[in-house]
Design brief:
Length: 167
């Protein structure tokens, strides 16, 4: 919530530093696996081990919110895939689950505050996770793309410049 408030008030101080992105994301995946126990299997694959210039705070928000959502909306025992890759001047983070999926009619509005899929049932949530992801991606000068099908799962792909400026 603090990140969202600071982002909306333009009071976030962007602090770019050299970061080995593979290790950074792998550590976040390991944190979630330790917390989730054996309820889900988190699988991390990386094809990009270089350092990038970025602010780790919004990057952590992106990775953590995407993994949290994938776990939250996936059945116990399912797998969540986290992939890191690069193409040219950007790196790509993909989080894919085999969860409940998001109805097509709900997908566009999920990046607005307090909006959730109409099929979430009793799964608790605030409807802020993807808003935070979008604002963090914007801060890093990137883009986010969502693909989902009800009953099949959701894939969210984030593209961020290798040298992310405070934009």
């Amino acid at each position: 919530m603090l990140f969202l408030a600071q982002s909306e008030s333009n009071s976030l101080n962007f602090s770019s530093e050299s970061l080995y992105i593979e290790q950074f994301i792998e550590h976040i995946v390991e944190e979630f696996q330790a917390t989730d126990g054996e309820a889900h299997k988190l699988l991390f694959e990386s094809y990009f081990a270089d350092a990038v210039m970025t602010d780790p705070r919004p990057l952590r928000q992106i990775v953590a919110n995407l993994i949290s959502n994938a776990i939250k909306y996936s059945p116990t025992g399912s797998e969540v895939y986290v992939t890191l890759d690069n193409s040219g001047e950007q790196y790509t983070l993909t989080v894919q689950d085999h969860g409940i999926g998001i109805p097509e009619k709900d997908q566009a509005r999920l990046f607005s505050a307090f909006q959730r899929g109409s099929n979430v049932g009793a799964v608790s949530g605030t409807g802020l996770g993807l808003v935070i992801v979008q604002q963090a991606v914007d801060l890093l000068g990137g883009s986010v793309h969502l693909e989902s099908q009800v009953g099949v799962g959701t894939t969210i792909t984030v593209h961020i410049p290798i040298t992310a400026g405070g934009g």
